[in-house]
Amino acid sequence: MGPAPAGAENREAAGEPEVMELALEGTGKEGKKESSKKHALAGSPVEGLLQPVKLSRAELYKEPTNEELTRLRETESLFHSSLLRLQVEELLKEVRLPEKKKERIDTFLREVNQRVLKVPSTPRTELTDQTWLPAGVRVPLHQVPYTVKGCFRFLPPAQVIVVGSYLLGTCVRPDINVDMAVTMPREILQDKDGLNQRYFRKRALYLAHLAHHLGQDPFFGSVRFSYTRGCHLKPSLLLRPHGKDERLVTVRLHPCPPPDFFRPCRLLPSKNNVRSAWYRGQSPPGDGSSEPPTPHYNTWVLQDMTLESHVQLLSTVLGSALGLKDGVALLKVWLRQRELDKGLGGFSGFLVSMLVAFLVSTRKIHTTMSGYQVLRSVLQFLATTDLTVNGISLCLSSDPSLPALADFHQAFPVVFLDSSGYLNLCADVTASTYHQVQHEARLSMALLDGRADDGFQLLLMTPKPMIRAFDHVLHLHPLSRLQAACHRLKLWPELQDLGGDYVSAALGSLTTLLEQGLGSRLHLLAHSRPPVSEWDISQDPPKHRDSGTLTLGLLLRPEGLTSVLELGPEANQPEAADFRQFWGSRSELRRFQDGAIREAVVWEAASMAQKRLIPHQVVTHLLALHANIPDTCVHYVGGLLDALIQSPKEASNTKGRMVMSQGGELVMVPNVEAILEDFAVLGEGLVRAVEARSERWTV
Question: Do 444 and 375 contact (CB within 8 A), yes or no?
Fold first, then answer.
């Protein structure tokens, strides 16, 4: 039996007579008169009421179509409920870009293309001779050291193409960004431009000349610089429309070399392309040791070379598969709500798009899947796959000259190779960030499998910043202290590789240090770096210390959290020296009840509240000892509710008891009224604390 016709339920509820001519055939005149009255009643329009729909017998008992049956089966098996499916579909409608806005954006992109191609050329000069630049524009790059070989001249780009999520149809609102690759002509590049930041210097000068001429064009409402994914060596130029469409779109121009200009074999993770003699002013070591590798520097060059090939790959995989595009959009919302896609090393929307392409190539995702199925499949893969141990690759070639996954694991904490086999897509992703992504994926899968009524709200609608996701949070400020930390930790190769970014250079060592010190107390350690804000073309680029605050989140284990003892090896073992070196003056020899003499660290904590804050003592001690970061630069947030919980208890000690006479003796008995008053104060305080932390749900 088919579904009930539209409006049937409303007619039954209102008591309206149904028109069933076949049921009245063969009756007498009274039946015909009654039928005619019903026809007249049904045919008379009543203002403000929905009229019944006349359906034939074939339409009334029509069997459901294959599409309707498939939708019902999908809803039952994949969405757990019709409500969840409706919520997902409504969310996708909200984040998709409307067609009317696409037409206006396409018009703006065509104008950008024409204006970029018309920028005039400049004469040939040395890279260090930048007097040809007008006074109203600055080079968007820290040129340290300033002296570098090579020549530069500006020529109009060989081509300007749209790359990224806008072309693929996977961009999500509210902020619409369109990436355009501006291919620099071969004539302005030289064979050895991959050495000593020469390519990045030319790239920055190319952008500066574009910014000067486009900034004078009244067609643009805003022309500003920004860093590409937080990388200080790769600025980009931001263009916005003029007038009422200023917030419609932001176009990001990315200069890049011709796809086959640099040889990939020179950009392997084991190769060096920043000489110590140039960067540090030191002559090569005379003992015959080789230069330190520069894997991140090489990766950033490769990223510019593969912009076009990556968009072609994603276009082939996603194509007309609407379910895959919906899945990518849902994953971007999922990442944004957890702030996992922000700043340098974030797990960006581009990475999840490439991950979907990988799962399609391995047949773990099919092109006919819905967006919700793609979301579940990717979250399941992230929750069960550790890319810090076993990397993955999109490369299908069996060429023996290609580097192995083991070579990339030696240079990077997280490994995910592109289709060329030379570029690690996760080169900037730290192990802490990936473990945080894994942790959130596990929680999300448990939420989906649990079929909670508010699962959709918690999964995709509720913001989950670091202050909500972790037990304790610490802020390191000012960031200039990390420069001293790099000196203390002797991170010269990392600074040379990262172009002087001492925040990124020190981050890996600091997280490893704290993970080792917190030990069994720690379940997860994550970090967050706010994205560097854009700046005017007439200003110098922001320095590394201007990127705000480095935030670390600690997710703690209840087991062992309140232990005041760090037990080390026995005094006669060789590991005892390493233990003393790690803990410094805190380490001391102690004799235990079993007669063993061991190295140990004892933390001062009298109450349970102080024991829960032992991680604070561990963090400040290790940062001061090993990284030269004083406790005044560590702003620790933890145990804020302890004072709220303790204050009523202290009040009860003073007024919660009273003296009474029982049998001629004075005894102390509880004061019930005072205790109830304390509980009321506690409840009001907890409510205020929760309301202060509550925020409005946004997508």
Answer: no
Question: Tell me, what amino acid is at 659?
Answer: V
pLDDT band (50, 70, 90) for residue 49 = low
Distance CA 551, CA 518 (A): 17
Give residues with Cβ within 8 angstroms of 676, minimum separation 6: none
**Strand, helix or coil for residue 281:** coil
DSSP 183-195: EPPGGG--TTTTS
β-strand pairing of 392-393 with 522-528: unpaired
Three-state helix/strand/coil letters over 193-229: CCCCCHHHHHHHHHHHHHHHHHHCCCCEEEEEEEEEC
Task: Answer yes or no: CATH 2.40.160 is held by domain 472-564+603-644.
Answer: no
Q: C-alpha angle 116/147/500, rounded to 5°?
A: 80
- Tell me the CA distances in angstroms from 378 to 335, 341, 436, one per residue in order: 12, 16, 15
For residue 191 the two structure tokens come to 């064979």
Q: Give residue-wise pLDDT tens across range 463-516.
A: 999 889 999 999 999 999 999 999 999 999 999 999 999 999 999 999 999 999
Mean pLDDT of the chain: 85
Q: What secondary structure does DSSP assign to 376-442, as a single string?
A: HHHHHHHHH--TTTS-EE------TTSPPHHHHHHH-SS-EE-TTSS-BTTTT--HHHHHHHHHHHH
Total count of residues recorded for the chain: 699
Q: Cis omega before residue 295 (within 30°)?
A: no
Per-residue pLDDT, 38:
43
Q: How far apart are CA 344 and CA 528, in angstroms?
A: 9
| Residues 374, 368: Cα–Cα separation, whole Å | 10
CA distances, 71 to each of 75, 78, 373 (Å): 6, 10, 13
Model confidence at 253, pLDDT cuts 50, 70, 90, reads very high
Q: Report yes or no: 328 and 277 within 8 Å, Cβ to Cβ.
A: no
Instruction: Work out the percent of the chain whose per-residue pLDDT is above 70.
Output: 84
* Contact (Cβ atoms closer than 8 angstroms) between residue 153 and residue 121: yes
Contact 202, 152 (CB under 8 A): yes
Q: 235 and 390 in contact (C-beta within 8 Å)?
A: no
- Residue 194's closest CA among 296, 280, 263, 284? 263
Report whether CATH 3.30.460 matches the domain 94-261.
yes
What CATH number belongs to 292-464?
1.10.1410.10
Closest by CA to 308, choosing from 157, 430, 175, is: 157
Tell me the average pLDDT across 438-450: 92
State if pTM tops 0.70.
yes
Extents of the domains making up the chain = 94-261, 292-464, 472-564+603-644, 647-698
Closest listed residue to residue 137, CA positions, set 212, 235, 200: 212
Report which of residues 73 and 117 the model is more confident about.
117
Higher-scoring residue by pLDDT: 290, 171: 171
Give residue 651's pLDDT band: very low, low, confident or very high (50, 70, 90).
Answer: very low
Residue 672 banded pLDDT, cuts 50, 70, 90: low
Task: Enumerate the H helices of 563-613 as residue ranges.
Answer: 575-583, 608-612
